[in-house]
Each structure stands twice: as C-alpha cells, then as structure tokens.
Write a structure and sequence with these properties.
Length: 756
C-alpha cells in the first residue's frame, strides 16, 4: 500500500473538507456563546447546526440548499412539539411513534430526504428527556432554528468561494474507484487466482464505481452552470468525466479466457508482466484522481510506455519461437490484452493533459447527448406516498418497523434506573435500515465501535488531565467522526464514542465513568431491540425483491446488446442512445451485484439458491463485459464486416434473454423460435477458413503482415464476442428456471409475511 498516495487522497477528499465544515459549524456557536456565559443556548444552537450539517450531503447546490432549508424548518417544528409534549410521557410516546413513521417514510423521496428524516428524529431524541414549559420550548426551538440557519449560510458561502471544488473531489474519487476496479481485474492475471473470489471482488468494485459515478452525474448534469458549458473549468470537468466513463467501458472490454491464457503463457511470465502493467495503470489513475481533487497538474509516469513496449517485444519474441497451430487463438487473445493496455495508457495520457486545465483542451467540446436522461429525477408527488402505503412497499414496512422498535425502546428506557433513554432511541434510529443486511452490519459496527471507543476515551481521561488538550482531542475526534460517517461506520463510531465522552467530561467533569457505563449499556439495549425488530417485525428479505434486479439487469443488457449489435447489421444506434443504454446496463449490473452482496449477509435460511444466484450474477457481468467488448470493435470494424448473417444470431440471443425474463417474472413465454446455430456456424466457418489460411501461411514460412492475418485479427475477435455472448446467454437461460422455482414459487405458497 502506498501510504503517501493514501494520505494525499485523504487530505484532498470531500470527506475531510465536509468534516471540517460541519465541525466548525457545530462547535463555533457553542464556543462563542459560552464566552457570554450562555452555554445552554450555545448547545441548542450547535444541535441545530449539527442536524442540518448531517443532511448537507454532496450534490447539486440547489438540492443542498433546498434540503437544508427544509431541514431547518422541520427540526424547528419537531423541537417545539416535543418540548410542548414533555409534560406527558404518553403524549411524548405518541409523538415518538408518529414522528418515527413519518420521517422514516420520507425515504420514499430519495437519499437526501431520508437524511432529513433521520436528523429530524435525531433532534427529537436529543430533546426527549428535557421537560420544558411552553415559552422555554419556543426559545429552545428558536435556538435550534438559529443553528440550522447559521450552518446553511456557512455552507452556501463556502460553496460560493469554490463552486467547482466538490465536483473536482467527486470526479477524483470516481477516478480512484476506477483504479480499484482495474486492480480487481489484475487479480485474474495471477497464477494462483481464485476466480470466484476475483469475480466477487470485481462486482463489489463495480458497486462502488456506480455510486461514485452517480454522484458525479448529479453534480455535473444537474448544475446549470456546467451543463450550459459557460466556463472553461466546467467544460474540462465534463470532458474528464465523459472520458472516465469511456475508460471504464474500455477496462470492461478486456474480458478474456483467462484459464487458456494461463495455460499457454504462465511459463513465459507474460501474464505476470501484464498484471504488473495493469497495476501500474491503476497507480497512474490514482495519481490522476488525486491531481483532479487538488486542482493541480498530475505528473505522468514516462516509464510506463517503455514498459508496455518491452512487454510487446517479449510477446513478439515468444510468438516467433513458440507459435503453432494449437496456440494461435491464445496469441491473438494476449495481443488483444496488450492492445487494451496500450489504449488505456493513451487514454490516461489524455487525462493527465486535462489536469493542466489548458484552455486549448475545451475549445472544441460539444455535447452529443441529452444529459437530462442520464440522471434520476424524484418529484415530490403525493402519488408516490399513496402508492407506498401498503405492506408490499419496503419503505412502508421499514417505517412501521422503526416506529414499533423505537416506541419499545422508549417504554423500556422508562423503567431503567440510569435513564438516558435518548441514547437507546438514538441507537435504534441510526442502526435500523430498510434491509436486514444493512441493519445487521450497522448493529455489529455500533457495538464494536462503542466498546473500542469507550476504551480509548477511558484511557485518555485517565492519562490526560489538561482541559485544553482534551478539548483539542475532542475536536480531532469530531472531525474524524464526520470524515468516516459516510465511508466506514465502524471507524466513525469508534471515533464518535471518545468524542462524546470527552464532551460530557468537559461539560460535567465529575462522573465520566457513570456516563461511560451508561453509554455502553444503552447501546447494547438499543442494538438488541434493533436486531429483534429486523428479524421479527414485518422483515424485509432480499430474496423477496431480487427478481426485480435480475430482470432489470437482463432487460438493460438486451437494450445494450441491440444498440451495439445493430452496427453489424447496418442499423447503428445514435451516440446518445448507445451511451444511455450503456449507462443503464452498468447501473443495473451494479444494482444486481449489490443485491447479491446483501443476500449473502442474511441468515442462511433466507439465502435462496445462492450458488445459482452467484452463477447468474457472474454470467450477467460476463455478458455486459462481452457486449462492451463488442462495442469497442463496432466503431472501426462494423461497417467493414457488416453481414446479414448477424441478424438471426442477434435475434436468437435477444429471444433467449427475453425468455429468461419471462421465466423469472412467471410470465407466459411467447412462441419459441429455433436457435440460430446454423447462422452462428456460418460465421465460425468464415473464421475457421481464415485460421486455416493463416496456419498454411505459417507452415509455409510466410511471416509478416498478410491479408489473411489482417482479416483474422479484425474479424475473429468480433465473431468471438458473438460466440461468448451466445454461450453466456445459454448459461443464463439454464439457471433462470431454477432461480424462479426457488424465489417465486415459495412466495406464491406462503403469501406475504404477517406483521410479526
């Protein structure tokens, strides 16, 4: 691991910038008001700033602004109502139940709305043990309102000073995620590779890339200033992102028969050399990502090109010495790999140039696509609420589950001698997620992080007595908490626990051991309630909805394949349509991979046909990769090798994929047309004749570039992709009925889960 590169990435990331912004926004009001002997008001103002800061997720500035304004108004009303209801535990309990349902249900409008809902519940919990009169409730709510307004103004002001910084950081993060995907691809070139593990790592990397690409699309395509190309920086950033998307597709096109390549080239060391080159390319991408984040030009590795040439020369020498009729196909595959590596190197040279922000780069940019179709739009429509007010809706079940679990925690906390009911409720609210796997993960991380953080806090309080040092440490722990809150919850909780302990010690320096003990006990109670609720209260299991992700991936691949294959039958898709179908296929594949990962975290009894499911997901990943490879060959070769023989092959592949969709959705399958084996055979025979011509040339001692060699190098890879796609499609068709029997049939037998 390159620790210097990791450090640079961390320092320039939007995670650190956001953490510092939130920390300053929270602590400054408390510090200033404490100087005027009004720490109580300062804490209330800081709570308001904290709740609004927690919703200030990366995104288009108008979305951030609207979200923060909505949060300010909501937390004011919640604080006021909870304060007014504090005279009656029954009324307070009723508010807890209603608020938990309503604000959890806000997640139906997307991630930002869900974040606002969680922080509305946070401000409710933090005020639930405070008994106030009517005027005091209004005053406290006003302080919270002031804190929210203060943070909103601070965030918008900072954005106005550096409007492109967040976009640069998000694109840099996306580039580094692409580097991670490239490293996952490099694992296939290791001699002792585990293909199942490597595919699992590849799919996890793709999920991460999808999340980061989606954020960049939001930032770029929903920002009018950038979309209208009114500034040089905006145009360059748009060009970088579009090139990174094309780069990612090019990486996907490197799908090969790795077992065959290992068989022929491991002894020569060529596979290991390719692996080293791919890792060097990944390191280059990391450097480019860091440069984009920092806004400084990147430094290109000049030795990479010579290393690629050396590997090419090694391959040529080995081919001249060992080529025969049996390994011609393997040499073509290895040559294609090196061509991909060379192409990636050229693309990275272009990306290095973009980091200079040279004005010559963006003069000729023009948009070929309608960016509006490349981002998701969620309208605040009451119909969406009505459609989800049913037990078949995951968000409805989650909201009801949170309400029941939280009211149970509220009732239990009333019987505990040490109180601190707000910490039990807080634990439940932050742990419980719409799906079991995420709740389970959060539960474990919350418990382990609390124990580890409690030990660290206790150690610091035992060793350090200086209040100023403890205050500085508290600020550092607070920054760390907000750095990791969106990327690693375990580390976040581990840092948050000593931060909270130090805060309470500075405010109430007498009994920190009691506070520490109560936090651990409260966390354990809240975790236990969350765990029980996620299993027994209208649970939501991944096998109940994974069929939608499976059919979504198949349908997206059908559209993607039609657009790509159309070029070989004289019906090329427009650039806009191709890019849209490519994006949809990549997103659908990432969603399917993520669903499989969630299913693997569920109890074994809920993991339906997991072997077949893994095979289905891997087959879809291979299908998308081969379609992307076919797309790479389409532009230079489609017009030259267009042939009517492709049409029945395309129709057959599409028909088989559509039949798989019908099977999974339990629909009646349309009339089945016979497989187009003869047409595929015709294409293969053309390749075979070229292979025989080339072998005859080699046997006759004919070296160098010949017409047969040129046609073979161009035509064979295209036909190979149609063969690969046809084979993978057959595999998907074979596994689909078994998955349907395991996933759909049990639901038809048992029906919908009861309430408990």
């Amino acid at each position: 691991m390159d620790y210097i590169r990791q450090y640079k990435s961390f320092i320039n990331s939007h995670y650190l910038n956001g953490a510092i912004r939130i920390t300053v926004g929270i602590t400054l009001p408390a510090i200033l008001l404490s100087q005027f002997n009004n720490l109580t008001a300062g804490i209330a103002v800081s709570i308001g700033a904290m709740c609004v800061g927690n919703t200030d997720n990366p995104g288009p500035i108008h979305h951030r602004r609207n979200g923060m304004i909505a949060c300010v108004l909501i937390i004011f009303m919640v604080t006021l109502l909870v304060g007014l209801a504090s005279w009656s535990p029954v009324v307070t309990g009723l508010l807890v139940f209603v608020f938990c349902f309503v604000f959890s249900f806000m997640g139906v409008y997307g991630t930002r709305a869900s974040s606002i809902g969680v922080n509305a519940l946070l401000v409710m919990v933090l005020n639930i043990d405070r008994h106030r009169q009517g005027l005091d409730s209004l005053i406290t709510a006003t302080y919270v309102l002031a804190g929210g307004i203060w943070y909103t103004v601070l965030s918008l002001l900072l954005y106005s000073f550096r409007p492109y910084k967040l976009v640069q950081q998000a694109i840099g993060d996306c580039v580094q995620a692409t580097a991670g995907y490239l490293r996952a691809k490099a694992a296939f070139y290791s001699p002792d590779t585990d293909y199942d593990q490597d595919y699992r790592q590849l799919m996890e990397s793709q999920v991460s890339i999808h999340e980061k690409q989606d954020l960049v699309r939001e930032l770029l395509f929903k920002s009018r200033k950038i979309v209208k190309e009114s500034t040089h920086v905006g145009r360059v950033l748009m060009m970088i992102f579009l090139d990174v998307i094309d780069l990612f597709e090019r990486i996907m096109t490197s799908q090969q028969d790795y077992r065959m390549l290992h068989h022929f080239f491991d002894d020569a060391g060529l596979m290991q050399e390719c692996r080293r080159l791919i890792l060097h390319l990944a390191a280059e991408l990391d450097e480019i990502g860091i440069a984009i984040m920092s806004g400084k030009p990147s430094v290109e590795n000049r030795e990479l090109a010579s290393q690629i040439r050396a590997t090419r020369e090694h391959l040529n020498r080995y081919r001249d010495e060992h080529r025969n009729a049996a390994n011609v196909e393997a040499f073509i595959g290895m040559s294609n790999i090196l061509e991909s590596i060379e192409d990636l190197g050229l693309r990275m040279h272009t990306l290095h140039g973009y980091t200079t922000y040279d004005r010559k780069l963006s003069r000729n940019i023009h948009s070929e696509v309608d960016v509006e179709e490349f981002v998701a739009h969620t309208e605040v429509d009451k119909k969406l609420i009505l459609d989800n007010l049913t037990f078949t809706s995951d968000i409805f079940r989650h909201s009801l589950r949170v309400s029941i679990a939280t009211i149970a925690g509220y009732i239990i906390s009333g019987f505990l001698p040490f109180g601190h009911g707000y910490w039990i409720l807080l634990t439940i609210i932050v742990i419980m997620k719409p799906v079991y796997s995420l709740t389970k993960k959060r539960n474990f991380e919350r418990l382990m992080g609390t124990l580890a953080g409690a030990f660290v806090g206790l150690l610091l309080l035992y060793l350090i007595k200086d209040t100023a040092v403890l205050f500085v440490l508290m600020i550092l722990f607070m920054i760390g908490t907000y750095v990791f809150i969106r990327i690693n919850y375990l580390i976040c909780v581990t840092l948050m626990t000593p931060y909270v302990l130090l805060l309470f010690h500075l405010l109430y320096p007498t009994d920190f051991r009691s506070i520490l003990t109560d936090r651990v006990i409260d966390t354990a109670i809240g975790s236990a309630i969350s765990f029980v609720a996620s299993i027994f209260i209208i649970p939501s299991w991944e096998h109940e909805r994974i069929t939608d992700f499976m059919t979504g991936a198949l349908e997206a691949n059908i559209a993607y394949f039609k657009d790509v294959a159309g070029a070989f039958i004289g019906k090329p898709a427009t650039v806009h349509q191709f890019k849209l179908s490519r994006k949809n296929a990549f997103v659908a594949l990432a969603n399917l991979s993520d669903a499989l990962a969630r299913m693997l975290s569920e109890p074994r009894s809920k993991q339906k046909s997991i072997t077949e499911m893994h095979q289905f997901v891997v087959s879809n990943h291979m299908l998308t990769s081969h379609i992307a490879t076919l797309a790479y060959y389409a532009e230079p070769l489609a017009a030259r090798y267009a042939d009517a023989a492709y049409q029945p092959v395309v129709d057959d592949i599409v028909c088989r994929l559509e039949r798989s969709v019908d099977v999974l959705e339990d629909r009646e399958t349309a009339v089945v047309r016979p497989p187009a084996k003869e047409e595929l055979l015709i294409l293969n025979e053309k390749v075979g004749s070229l292979m025989l011509r080339r072998k005859a040339e080699l046997d006759g001692g004919v070296e160098g570039s010949t017409d047969a060699r040129k046609q073979l190098r161009e035509f064979k890879p295209v036909v190979d992709q149609f063969n690969f796609i046809s084979k993978v499609t057959t595999d998907i068709g074979k596994v689909s009925p078994a998955l349907h029997a395991a996933l759909v049939a049990p639901e038809q037998e048992v029906g919908l889960n009861p309430l408990f």
